[in-house]
Amino acid sequence: MIIRWWRAVAGSQAVLDQYADHLERTTFREMAELLGHLGASLAVKVNGTDYELVVTSLWSDLASVGHFEQGAFDDAVVKPSTQKLLKSFDLKVEYFETLVTTGILDKG
Fold first, then answer.
1. Which residue has the higher pLDDT, 10 or 107?
2. DSSP letters of the chain?
């Protein structure tokens, strides 16, 4: 299983709420239709007045995440409307291959 990891910062609770709603209504639904997609999540950590975000998606293999490519394999795909919304965001995504899992991720 492949974990695709991307970080961003929202500058307020209102922006966080708007971004979470956007993910639920559009991005996560679109990803769910793609072959090899296993799930996704948005996690948040409050840091002063900022909301640090991590968007994680799970994929069966690296070939499954190829639809994100618009440049280099690790370029983040961030729509202009999302860029305007967020305080900052990573330009690159990270990919991790899982070695050992347990709980709901354990398919063994």
1. 10
2. -EEEEEEEEESSHHHHHHHHHHIIIIIHHHHHTSTTEEEEEEEEEEETTEEEEEEEEEESSGGGGGGG-SSSTTB----HHHHHHSSEE-SB-EEEE-----GGG---
C-alpha distances (whole Å) from 6 to each of 58, 107, 108 are: 12, 24, 27
Residue-level pLDDT at 93: 94
**Residue 46 forms beta bridges with which residues?**
51
Residue 31 — φ and ψ, nearest 5°?
Answer: -65, -35
- Cβ-in-10-Å burial (0-12, 13-18, 19+) of 104 comes to exposed
* Percent of the chain surpassing pLDDT 70: 93
Q: Which domains does the chain carry?
A: 2-97 (3.30.70.100)
